[in-house]
Amino acid sequence: MHHVLEQWRREAPDLDRSAFGVVGRISRLAQLVQAEIEPVFVVHGVNGGEFDVLAALRRAGRPHRLSPTELSRALIVTSGGMTKRLNALERRGLIRRQPDPNDGRSTAVSLTREGKRLVEAILFEHVANEERLLSDLSDKERAELAALLEVLAVSLGDGVDARTRGTSSAGRKRRQAIAAR
Questions:
Q1: How close are the terminal C-alpha atoms of the chain, in Å?
Q2: Backbone region of residue 83 per phi and psi (left: phi > 0; alpha: psi in -120 to 50; beta: other values)
Q3: pLDDT per position as a tens digit, 23-41
Q4: Structural domain boundaries of the chain?
Q5: Mean local confidence (pLDDT), 86-109
Q6: β partners of residue 45
Q7: Sign of the CA dihedral 69, 73, 74, 76?
Q8: In sequence order, what are the residues at sequence separation of 6 or more whose Cβ sits closer than 8 angstroms to the Cβ of residue 86?
Q9: How far apart are the C-alpha atoms of 179 and 173, rounded to whole Å?
Q10: Closest CA to 40 of 123, 115, 131, 134
Q11: CB 56, CB 75: distance < 8 Å
């Protein structure tokens, strides 16, 4: 990244490159982190997206059941993408789809016993791997980085109703609340 910024400094000295440095590093980190995280899932026969589904069901608490729509919203995945994940997990016996006991028009997705065992086995390895990835950062640095990334995510509309994304004082108020922590 430093090399790219230096090239732009040389070729376009009047260009403000500060956003390049931030966005470029975030993009590069996303690639690096993904490459370090995915192998933990692959060893267990799932991919990161499938693990996310299993983890969402597990953290929902007993009876570890959500609707496909709730899963799509929680994981920010299209309904088509969610269907693909659910089909793969159901084929392997990790989830079960049944009529929703509270709404006969809907389907409920629940963890099977095997799915629960698998997500719990992966979870400890996944957390240990994430800890390894952040081991060079102090607790203070982690907290500062997490807060700054949250401010950026909120300013880009994460966790904000799509109708107000990027516009209102909601993002500004949220950033102020985060900064005050």
A1: 31
A2: alpha
A3: 989 999 999 999 999 999 9
A4: 2-137, 138-181
A5: 90
A6: none
A7: positive
A8: 53, 68, 71, 95, 97, 109
A9: 10
A10: 123
A11: yes
Contacts of 35 (CB under 8 A, 6+ apart): none
Tokens matching residue 50: 């499938």
Q: Where are the alpha helices (DSSP H) in the chain?
A: 2-11, 18-42, 48-59, 68-75, 79-91, 113-133, 139-155, 169-180
**Which pLDDT tens digit goes with each residue over 158-179?**
875 443 444 445 555 555 555 5
Coil, strand or helix at 105: strand
CATH for 2-137 is 1.10.10.10
For residue 46, give every residue at least 6 positions away whose Cβ sits within 8 Å of its Cβ, in sequence order, or none: 54, 89, 94, 118, 122
